[in-house]
């Protein structure tokens, strides 16, 4: 018997994710089978599959990405089963769980210790924590000890691309870095691929507007 959540999950894929040009079969299968409702705060259970950003913390910027954005992120990274992934901004652990299903292992960090602890509890309950390491720290304070990675996913927006210069150096050759760059009302989703030792290829994927990453490095504006 199909449950309400299963029906909502099917509708999410067919009415939100697939129409947003997410056509990768692996991504659709994983999102179609991942119980998103278990990663949503109790107060928002009824909105688990809605096309909105769901509040997840005490700050206005702490919100869950809309499903269609998650789909584009996962598709852009083109993960293989042997890939190790670095996620910046664990949030509720939903994207983390999807990344772990697509790759070999995920090293995820969140600057908010409470969110990191809650995500870890959810992932333990889902039985995926063996492939996932979650730490509470500022990803921009130091390079990850687990680098280099096949892929890096930044789940909150950055005001400029400058912080990506440091992150991209933590990629393996051929590795991919997905990030949102810019400030409201319009931001750009970009994919940076490491080509050889010191070369990088940048692609602009789509325009959007997502919550900023807490404590993201900023470039001071010039004052006359």
Automatic annotation (TrEMBL):
One of its GO terms (molecular function) is protein-L-isoaspartate (D-aspartate) O-methyltransferase activity. It holds the Pfam family PCMT. InterPro entries: PCMT, rRNA_Ade_methylase_Trfase_N, SAM-dependent_MTases_sf. The keyword Kinase does not apply. Keywords: Methyltransferase, S-adenosyl-L-methionine, Transferase. GO terms for biological process: methylation. Residues 69-203 form the Ribosomal RNA adenine methylase transferase N-terminal domain. Gene3D superfamilies: Vaccinia Virus protein VP39. PANTHER family: PROTEIN-L-ISOASPARTATE O-METHYLTRANSFERASE. Belongs to the methyltransferase superfamily. L-isoaspartyl/D-aspartyl protein methyltransferase family. This is Protein-L-isoaspartate O-methyltransferase. It comes from Thiorhodovibrio winogradskyi. The gene is pcm_3.
